[in-house]
Amino acid sequence: MTQTLTHNISFPLTEPGALDQDEAFFHLFEDGVERRLRFHDYGPIYQRPGLYEQLFYQRLQCASPTKAVDVLGKVLTDNRVEISSLRVLDLGAGNGMMGELLNAARVVGVDILEEAKQACDRDRPHAYDAYYVADLTSPDPKVEAQLKMWQFDCLSCIAALGYGDIPVPAFANAMNLVQDQGWLVFNIKEDFMRSGDRTGFSRLIDALMRLGVLEIHHLERYRHRVSIDGRPLFYFVVVARKVADVAPDVVDRAMRP
Ligand SMILES: C[S@@+](CC[C@H](N)C(=O)[O-])C[C@H]1O[C@@H](n2cnc3c(N)ncnc32)[C@H](O)[C@@H]1O
Q: Structural domains in the chain?
């Protein structure tokens, strides 16, 4: 990144635990104006150089991209695969925090927000070989055709599943862009892996494991970051091998509560 600005931000006085991750907000003071932004207001956050890093990495101590790359590296070493040989699709790429750590043959970013691509072009132009602004929930056939041409053998998806971010069908479509025997590294909030989860990820991952579509190589609970009131937020990091495509009926069933 070329520049780190220190933004004038403050966190509100709230009851501990009162706000869920997607409700949490902060105040931004700029040019004499106070704005209230949610942590998930990614567009305005990405538009301000350094604000995403200041919030999530300095204040909230997000550890996930380094954790994911570390765990992926260990699994690949155990399986005698060089990360430098992989062609990686980084889904929910944001401003490139994950992409810049992946020392792979090709790294291609996809994000739903134009502001994410602009922030990445501005702050980490070296992170990706290509960056697509797309929603893989129902991808534009032209974008899908281009993505297929990259012949991915690895999918990364960090800090982007659930919570109104990437839904099950988009994740499944991204998995299906990865060749069989390819690798997956993703993280997910521990609640979304439990029964009773409403995002559908718990049912999807259960089904994929049962059907032998996913071969789990590493599953670890770790501290993703702290919450706005300083509580640890635990996620699972998963490294898996994709054995076959995800069938549409598996996605449909995962989406049904
Ligand atoms: C918390 S950020 C994570 C960014 C990056 N992976 C990181 O670790 O810093 C979540 C990203 O997911 C993106 N996102 C949300 N819904 C999406 C979707 N349906 N398809 C692609 N990206 C999506 C958001 O725009 C945002 O950039």
A: 8-59 (no CATH), 64-255 (3.40.50.150)
